[in-house]
Each structure stands twice: as structure tokens, then as C-alpha cells.
Amino acid sequence: MKVGVIDVGSNTARLLVASVEGTSVSQLRRERHYLRLGNDVHTFSRITPEKLAETEAVARRLARLARKAGAERLETVVTAPGRQAANGTALIAALESATGAAVVQLSGHDEGRLAWEGAVARMEEPPELVAVIDLGGGSCELAVGTPGLGPRWVRSIDAGALRITRAHLDRRRPASEQMVAARHHIRQLIADFDPPRPDAALVVGGTARAVERVLGSPFDAEQLEGLAATLERVAPEWIVASHGVTAERAQTLLGGTLVLAELASRLDTTLEVARGGLREGAAIMLARAALAAA
Fold it and tell me: What is the number of other CB atoms lying within 10 angstroms of the CB of residue 124?
């Protein structure tokens, strides 16, 4: 079955059109548009009318592209901005109007489960116990589970790359006290985390792919700390010029790297960038639901 998933997050709106058979997901089309809804949420605690209008226009375009690519079913999933914005219901309404299809507001737990399903589905030979970190702009999810049975331990924290950047590191070169505050904040958020020790750990999201451009994959906590030390000293333009990271991603890469470093240390393992994630997981579930209803 061909399905389309529009994923509206704190940094971007993304489209995946895929052919799904069981847990096999074959990509037909991808699109990305930077919206930065998380900026509005951080500054105003809500999404401004101007940004809602932009989001509606982008979603309308993505829905049109999905149908043109042959999507038989279309669904929009909304992550952290819908949970964190005071007017999250207005965002849902705008997306429903724009796409003419179902819009689902994901909880942090939902987001973690879907990211785990999508990441593990793209593994060739998954081991017995797999951890998946889904680092977005507004939140970060960690799920640990067994292939065939699904995730059994899931946590979500408001520590996305954009959110940490806006809260603590919103300068071209952050001061040392800002770095200390950011690390302290992240450690507080994961203080009660006691996940099962995985046999493999995957990480999904735009920040993870940007880190991979610099460090390769897999990478560990020590390498991430080294990258953070470099990013603390240089302007964002350096990472754009030297490694081809987009300018938008470079602005929040330090905040995201700090989150990944803390989680890699807590899991005591290396992290490998996954080839699937939230959108693949949502596509599998959408196709499964459609077939069940047929």
C-alpha cells in the first residue's frame, strides 16, 4: 500500500510517501521545509497567526505532492509543537483544513514508540534489545524494546535541539556559564532514567544526521563531547562550510549534541544513525490500519 505521512515538528515539516508491505518501507518521495514552530513556542508560548498561515500553506503543498505521488492514505502527525504550544488545537485545525486528511497529535510516548518501530524496521539483523533515541527540535524520546514485541521502556523529555538552544545557547558563541546551565538542565531531565542496557542503540532525527556528517557513524559520548567543545568555539558558518550541514541545522547542532552526549553516556554504548524513524513507523501503522479496515 502507498501511504503518505506529513510530520510536523518543532524545526521542520517533512513528507514521506512510501510503499509499505508488512514492516518493509520503500521510499517513493521525501520533502522537507523548515518552519521553526519551536521558536514561536519558546518566545510566545503559542504559535503566531503568521506562522500558522505559513504552516497551513506548507501542509497544503505537501498533501498535494503526496497525492500526486500516488498515496492511497494520508495522515499528518504532530509532535512537540502541538503539545507545547498554548494554541496547539489551532495548529491541528489548520493542518486538517490544509490536508483534508486525518491529523494525529502524538504524545511523547506515541512519538517514542513510532520512532522505535520505524528505526528497527530498517535494521537488517536487529539484536535482542534495541534502544532508539528520537531527537527532534522540541523534545527527545528514548525507547528500548525487543524486535517482534516492540518497545517496553519509553520516556520523553522536553529537551529537543531547538528547545535547548533557545533556552540556554542562543548566541553565536555561548559563554561557559551557558554551557554549564544547558548540561545541568539536560541532566536534571534524565536524572531518573534507568533504561535497560541495550545490545544496540540507534538515533534518529536531523541533528543525528548532521552529527554523522562530522563524526561518521557510530559515535560515542567521548566523540560527542569533543564535537560539543569544537562547536562551542566556532561560529555556525564553520560547520556549514566544512561539513555541508544546513545553516538552519547548524544553529541548533550544539544543543542537540549535548543531549546526545548525555544519553550516550547514560546508555554506556555507541550510537548509530538509523535509516528509519518516526515517519517510517507512522507509515507502517497507517498501512496496517488501512488494511485492517478494508
Answer: 5
DSSP state of 271: B
Is residue 131 over pLDDT 90? yes
CA distance 7 to 14: 5
CA 39, CA 138: separation in Å to the nearest integer? 9
* Cα–Cα nearest to 218, from 231, 201, 230: 201
CATH topology of domain 124-273: Nucleotidyltransferase; domain 5 (3.30.420)
Distance in angstroms (rounded) separating the CA atoms of residues 120 and 77: 19
Q: Which residue is it, cell 489551532?
A: 90
Average pLDDT, the chain: 95
- CATH number, span 2-108: 3.30.420.40
> What are the structural domain ranges in the chain?
2-108, 124-273
| Per-residue pLDDT band at 148 (split at 50, 70, 90) | confident
Nearest to 128 by CA among 147, 143, 112: 147
The string of DSSP letters for 25-40 reads EEEEEEEEEE--HHHH
- Is the pTM higher than 0.90? The answer reads yes
